[in-house]
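Run log, item B.
One chain of 80 residues. Sequence copied directly from the ordering sheet:
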Amino acid sequence: MSGNENIVAYVLLNVALGKEATLREEISKLNYVTEAKIVYGEYDIVVRIEAPTLTILDKLVSTIRRMSGVLKTVTLISTS
């Protein structure tokens, strides 16, 4: 990564039953979130983030993890 590229990460969320739509809407409004999709399978929501620094990414993921109804997260940082 060159110095001017954003860090792209995907956050996979397990959420409380019935909270999918509300959380997707809340998360979509956060700065640096480019997509938030409800999915079927092992996870309930997939969030795509483009952050300028790891510090900002960390703060954003921490914000998501503290949201009511979020049970578990897995963060994947893209290399390309």
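Observations after the first pass:
- The chain has a mean pLDDT of 95.
- Strands lie at 7-15, 33-38, 45-51, 70-77.
Flagged for discussion on Thursday.
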